[in-house]
Amino acid sequence: MNQFVTLEQIDRAVEAVRSRTSHRPRIGIVLGSGLNSLADSVQKADAIPFGDLPDWPRSTVHGHAGKLVVGELEGQSVMVMQGRVHFYEGYSISQVTLPTRVMARMGLEILIVTNAAGSVNPDFAPGDVMLITDHLNLMGMTGANPLMGPNIEELGPRFPDMSQAYDLQLMAQARKTAAESGITMREGVYCGLSGPSFEGPADLRFLRLAGTDAVGMSTVPEVIVARHGGMRVLGFSGISNKANLDGSTVTTHEEVIEAGKVITPKIEKIIRGVLRAL
Ligand code: HPA
Asked: Between 98-105 and 220-228, two packed helices, what is the crossing angle to 10 degrees?
């Protein structure tokens, strides 16, 4: 599992992307489970299947398409990851974050991440959108930090600060856009776990005590790598299910994908508004 991605591998992937598109994107967008459709709205799109890119990790999960879509959205030059890979798929945490490394190396300034998550906050309901204001890096605390291994000095420092991982100005813009669009946007702390089993009631009581509002199996490693590389980050969770705090409900992947259909139009509206304001 200790397979560290090297600068040479990152640069090879950067070259492969650059050779397949003339766009020079400024903003990266990662679309989570069931939230794929925004990629279809990208104009002047160059679609690059992940399989065409060297060392690029490929998703094995239903609901995650596998391509990079580079083009324009709301007047901005964007690079959209339609589908991501997760640590639980068996890739090293360093391989999982290769796409984010590539974005940072290509000089992208902003990363917008989305995910499907279970609500641990009892006030949240399936279909809600949550602005991620901070995260709980439980994967990293248990040894799976994406910056482990030799530090790539060309990308960032050995000990990057995470005191404000999510960008205050971008969050303010997201709030403004949500309010203007009449979308009730929740806010809270996202906890990233490795999965793939969903949490049990004791796990969830622990997470709630620790200040978690929503829980999922992605995002945090990408955000750490993006911040290491100096990118500004904005993140959204689509609440797909109520996490099973008292053991009375069962969580399924199908429910996560179904909820995405309600959540996608809301997240799309907010992201479009933020892009227009940039
Ligand atoms: N737990 C973890 N990951 C998830 C969940 C959940 O309840 N829902 C969607 N992704």
From this structure: 30
